[in-house]
Specification:
Chain A has about 300 residues and is α/β, with parallel strands linked by helices. Chain A is built from 12 helices and 8 strands. Chain A has an 8-stranded parallel β-sheet with strand order 1-8-7-6-5-4-3-2. Classes of the chains: A alpha/beta (about 300), B alpha/beta (about 325). At the A-B interface, helix 1, helix 4 and helix 7 of A face helix 1, helix 2 and helix 8 of B.
Chain lengths: ~300, ~325
């Protein structure tokens, strides 16, 4: 994994502190060109990994990447699935079964009409695989070395104590996409313990990590203990604590942990991208604690 | 210390979310889960350690819970809750409490009579921004309240379809019961109890059996009036967005789940607030939770219920009595239309 990963919240108006800011961002990134422009700025600053939710519009970004293979030779996408609000709204509108049906590919609906639904509904893991495939369709031809399960699903399964499904996701993306599974969570201590219990070695976990303890369930201390135990590869997200920790302070805190492998952040302006990436590099080097230099890539 | 023996009835979107949060709670032992949907129950049987039932009465009899979370369609609430209360089981019910205020009043009486903890899932009251808004109102920060606007918008029904209980008013579906009830409850709980309604419009946008938008004027017992504006067919919102705006003699409050904006005409003696605009974000106002699933407020409300059932906190937030006020306001709106 690269030391720095670029996130997508700013492109889709996901803002944890202000609905107004969120609207401004939606206006700014109304056209795909505006997103591509910012991705190109990030690449210019040496950030070659884009971690994004599987919104329909990401398909357009993938098409752009595929049609410019030379320009994006080193570019990677880490898809994060599913886009939960899409499913949640569908459940409210169509009911649980209706929602699942509405997101299955056309040929699956045909299978269901022939009685396949009864079969499929018993084989939940098969159903999971079909849904993963549906989400992955838009990434065909793009490098996706890590495929993430969104926190709402990871954490839901975690609370339900259904770790077996997390393990099945881990196995499936390896088998079908030759990719590593990643898990986004707001509950690092519990997830790390659960994945360890399932025998998943060194899982990739993307989790909130900031000095204020924002969205760090169980508290900062418990998170720092998980890092020290070195049983997982951690990507720090929400490093600005949803926006209320001063940027430089925020970067200094996460950069001080050798065990944090990657840092995820999103920004809209060249100035912010440049500042944040250079702080991460400087502070990581200054701490002399990074395993790899910023632009070096590990096996993935 | 003994854990709270908890059972869950109804495993739709809310029920599963509650089950996950309760399943991760250190003071809870899940003794049973119940739903009539085979697909959900089969999933839970196969992948989770919970004991599964399709008949809630059998579950109660066999698992003997101290407390129950009820997340079934609203039309079933009254009968099931009355049954549970008489068995002296603490009840957390999804909102709205009932489809008729007389039922809500009766449930309130039963809950008091049998001395059981009772709570309804109006989660906004556990959000840091709305909690702070209420504190400011109670402290008279913005002076005498002159007017308020309660709003909620989101993209639930964005095309024609009539297939679930949410599209059936008698079952507790529709924008009024679903989205608007949250705003009504926030107004009741933070500004004052709604006693009159004026000029309400229940508008259909995509649905044929229920309203998709609710617009009208509300009057509180204090005489203060305000506007209610709710639309669940608004695609310009990524997810449900609830906002309360209050004009007072000393300023204004604009509050949503993420941000609290306070304008003060004159300075007041209160930490963190001064003349002019003051902006506080949820990050600074929200208490952390032990397990996070979809917003601190969902975890916080269950944690509060669990602690109330274990007698660690008083049972004073989102009680049946308060939810009955909301059911009453819903009926006022329905009958004025």
């Amino acid at each position: 994994m690269d030391r720095i990963l670029f996130g997508d919240n700013q492109f889709f108006g996901v803002n944890h502190i202000s609905d107004e800011k969120s609207r401004q961002q939606l206006v700014h990134f109304k056209n795909d060109e505006a997103i591509i422009e910012v991705l190109d700025l990030a690449i210019q600053e040496g950030v070659n990994t884009f971690m994004c939710t599987t919104y329909a519009r990401i398909g357009n970004i993938c098409s752009h990447v595929k049609s410019n293979p030379e320009k994006y030779a080193d570019f990677k996408i880490f898809p994060c699935m599913p886009y939960a609000h899409k499913y949640a709204n569908a459940v409210t509108e169509l009911g649980m079964v209706g929602a699942v049906k509405s997101y299955l590919p056309g040929n699956m609906v045909g299978t269901m009409l022939k009685g396949g639904w009864a079969f499929l509904s018993k084989d939940y893991l098969k159903l999971m695989e079909v849904l993963v495939d549906a989400e992955m369709k838009m990434f065909e031809g793009v490098s996706t070395p890590i495929i993430f399960l969104q926190n709402v699903v990871t954490d839901m399964l975690l609370g339900l104590q259904a770790g077996e499904v997390l393990a099945a996701f881990h196995q499936y993306v390896k088998k079908r996409y030759n990719a590593e599974a990643g898990f986004i969570t707001m509950n690092l201590p519990l997830l790390s313990k659960t994945l360890d219990g399932l025998g998943i070695e060194q899982p990739i976990i993307c989790t909130s990590f900031n000095k204020e303890g924002f969205r760090m369930s169980g508290g900062v201390k418990a998170y720092e203990e998980v890092l020290a135990a070195k049983k997982c590869r951690v990507i720090a997200m929400q490093i600005f604590g949803g926006g209320f920790i001063p940027a430089k302070e925020a970067v200094a805190y996460v950069s001080s942990f050798t065990e944090i492998e990657s840092i995820l952040f999103g920004a809209s302006s060249h100035g912010n991208i440049k500042a944040t990436t250079s702080w991460i590099r400087e502070m990581s080097l200054a701490n002399n604690k990074t395993k790899s230099l910023p632009n070096e890539q590990s096996k993935l | 210390m003994d854990k709270l023996k908890l059972a869950i009835i109804g495993l739709g979107k809310m029920g599963l979310s509650h089950l996950s949060i309760a399943g991760a709670h250190s003071e809870v032992s899940i003794v049973g889960v119940c739903d009539t949907s085979k697909i959900v129950i089969d999933f839970l049987k196969k992948f989770t350690p919970f004991e599964c039932f399709s008949d809630y009465k059998k579950m109660i009899e066999s698992s003997k819970p101290h407390a129950v979370i009820l997340a079934v369609p609203t039309k079933f609430h009254y009968e099931m809750i009355a049954d549970l209360l008489q068995k002296k089981i603490h009840v957390f019910s999804e909102k709205p409490l009932t489809t008729h205020p007389t039922e809500a009043t009766h449930l309130t009486q039963l809950a008091n009579q049998f001395e059981v903890v009772n709570q309804v899932g109006y989660h906004n009251q556990f959000l840091g921004t709305f909690i702070e808004m209420k504190r400011l109102i109670n402290n008279g920060t913005i002076g005498t309240i002159q007017h308020f606007t309660g709003e909620a918008y989101g993209p639930v029904i964005t095309k024609s379809n009539e297939s679930t209980w949410r599209s059936n008013a008698s079952e507790g579906g529709g924008c009024l019961m679903d989205y608007a009830s949250h705003v009504i409850d926030l107004i009741n709980g933070s500004i004052g109890v709604i006693t009159k309604t004026h000029g309400f419009l229940l508008k259909k946008i995509y649905s044929t059996n229920v309203e998709d938008a609710v617009y009208g004027l509300l009057e509180l017992s204090s005489g203060v009036t305000g506007v209610l504006s709710v639309n669940w067919s608004d695609e310009t919102y990524r997810k449900m967005t609830t906002r309360i705006t209050i004009n007072g003699s000393n300023g204004k409050i604009i509050c949503d789940a993420t941000e609290l904006k306070v304008f003060l005409k004159n300075s007041i003696e209160m930490e963190g607030y001064s003349k002019g605009w003051n902006i506080k974000t949820v990050g600074a106002l929200q208490e952390p939770v032990d397990f996070y699933l979809r917003g601190e407020e969902y975890s916080a409300q269950l944690d509060y219920f669990i602690k109330a059932a274990l007698k660690k906190v008083p049972n004073t937030i989102n009680t049946f009595e308060q939810a009955a006020h909301t059911d009453r306001a819903i009926q006022l709106i329905q009958s004025s239309n």
